[in-house]
Design a protein that fits this description.
Helices cover about 30% and strands about 15% of the residues. It is of the alpha+beta class and about 500 residues long. Strands 7, 8, 9, 12, 15, 17 and 19 form a seven-stranded antiparallel β-sheet that branches. A four-stranded antiparallel β-sheet has the order 10-16-13-14.
Length: about 500
Amino acid sequence: MKHFALALLAHCGGTRVQAAPAPPLWEAGVRRRRSGAPLSHQHQHQHQQRWGPGACFLPSAPPNSRTYGVYPTRRASAAPRLSPTNGHRRCSALSVSKRVDESSRRKPGAGSARKKKGGSAIGNNGRRRMKQSEIDSLVRGIGLEPVARPSATKKEKNGNGERHLQTGDKISADLMQQLSTPSISLRTQLAYSRKGHALLRNFLPPSLVEEIRSELLPHAASHEVSAWRQKVEVQLADSSDAYFRENARTISDNLQTVEDCRDLLESLGVDPSSGDLPFLQHFNAWRATATPNRSLDAVRNLCLSPYLAQTASILMDAPTVRLYQDSLFHKRPGDGRTPWHSDARMAPFDTSKMVTFWIPLQDVRSPEEGGTGLLFADGSHSDFALPYWNGVDGDEYQRLEKRYGTVSHHMPLGVGDVTVHSGWTLHCADAADGMEDGDDRYAFAISYFDGQAELRDDVLAPKTDSGDQKGDNEDVWSFRRWVEEVEPRSQFLHPMVPIVWPPAGE
C-alpha cells in the first residue's frame, strides 16, 4: 500500500519522492478494472498498439486515460522483460517513478493549468494540483519522511536522484554549520532500513575531505602512543588473567613509548608485525584542544554540523540526535582483517537507533584490487535471532557469511563518497595484505545515536572469569571520561555527547 500511495502522490503532486524497489503489488502486471475483471487480451493488444510494446500495466491509470489498466509510456528501445505470470513487461519502482514524471509532461498546446479561487492550480482535466504541504502530510501519514527540499547552496544530483554538495565547490569547513541536509532519497532510506547500510555518493566536497585529512593525520601522528595504549588495554581487558583484567587501565597508562606497547603485546601473544592487529584507532578529535600550530576546526564543524545530524535523524527516524564519537581508523600495510562486529555492542547506550558515517580520506579500490573498505552482512541489523539463540559469542558468529548469504560492499569509493550503516549492522574489512608502503588507508567515522537513549547499567563492568560480558569495551577509551558522570537509565545532558539535532534554538 505504501508503494501505491507513493506512486499516486508523485503523479498528483509532482513531488520528488522516489518509489521503493518493486514489491509483489507491481509484479502482478495487469490491474483490474472497476468491474473487478482483468483487461481482455483484445484490450491489451489495442493499447499496446496505441502506446507501443513498452506500455506498462499498473495498479493505477493516469487521469487522461479513458481506459483502465494501461499506462502510456515512451516506446521501449530494448526488448521488454517478461513476467512469468502474464507475459507483460514487469515494472520496477524506478520505472514507475520515471513514467509518472514523463506522463505529467504536457505537449505544447494541450492545455495549460488555470487558477481557481484561492490560488490552487487546476489542470485541464479538472483536478486540483496538491500542495507540497499536503503531499508531505500524506507521506508522513504512511510512516515515511518527506524528501527535504534543496537549499540555495549549489548542489548536484547523483545516481539515486539525491542532491548533495557540488564536488567542485570550494566550501570552507565552518560553512558546515549553516548547510541544510541533502535530499536523502526514499531509495536510500529503504536500502538503509532493509539492509542496514547504504551509500551516499558525492556526499561531501573533496576539498572539505582534504581539509579534514590535513587536520587529522598530524593529530594522529602526535598521539600515536595513545593509539597503541588503547590496543594494549583492549587485550588486557580481554585476558583470561584476572590481574590483567582488573588493572588493564593502570598498566596501559604507564607505557611511555610505542616500543613499550609492542613489547607488551608480544608478551600477550599478539604480534603487531604479522597482522594480529586490524588497525590503529584515534578517538574524538572533535574534542581535542587546538594549538597555535594545529587546528581541528574542520573536524569539529563537520561532526557538529546539521548537515550530518539531520541526515542521521532521517535514517534513524529519531527526532533528536546526539553525537556519540568520531574515530580515525588507520590501516597500515600488513594489518590484519577487521573481524565481524557491530558498533552498538561497543557503545554504552541501550538503543537500537545508532548510525555511523564512514568517510574514506582517499580513494578506496574495489576488493579485487586490494580495497579495504567495509563489507556488510545484509539485514544483520534486524536479525534478533542471532544474539537471542546464540548469545554474543557463539559459534554461529564464525559462519556469518553462510548465515546471511549476501555480503555486500560499496567499493570502489571516491573522495567525497560516504557509507552509512546502522549500529547493529555486522560489518568487517579485509586485511591489508596487498597494500604497499605509503598507501596507508585512513577512514574517518562519525557516529550518532537517538537523543532519547539511556545509559546502560553495566557499561564499565569488567569481563568475568567465565567470560560473560554483554557489551564489548573496546571503545571504552571514547566514553570513559563522561560515562561516570551520568546516571544510568535516565535522560541526561552532557557536553561530551551533545544534542546536535535539532539545532540549538529550534
